[in-house]
Amino acid sequence: MIPLSYCLRNLLRRPGQSLQLITGTCMVVILIMTAASVNNAMKKTLGNTGDPLNTILLGAGSEESVERSEVKKGVEDIIASSISGIRHVMGKPSVSPEVHFNGLLSTPDGTSSQGLIRGVQHQALWVHQDVRIVRGRFPRAGEVMLGKLAPQKLGLNASELEVGKTLIFNNEKLKISGIFDAIGTVMEAEAWVPLQDLMTYIQRDNFSCVVVSVKDASSFGDLDAFAKRRLDLELVAIQESDYYSKLSTFYAPIRWMAWICAILLSVAALFGGLNALFAAFSSRVREFGAMQAIGFNRWKILLSLVQESCFSSIIGSLLAFIVVAGTLDNTAVPFSIGVFLLDYNQPVLNVGVTTCLFLGVIGGLPPAWSCLKPSLTETLRSS
Question: Does the predicted TM-score (pTM) go above 0.85?
Answer without folding.
Answer: no
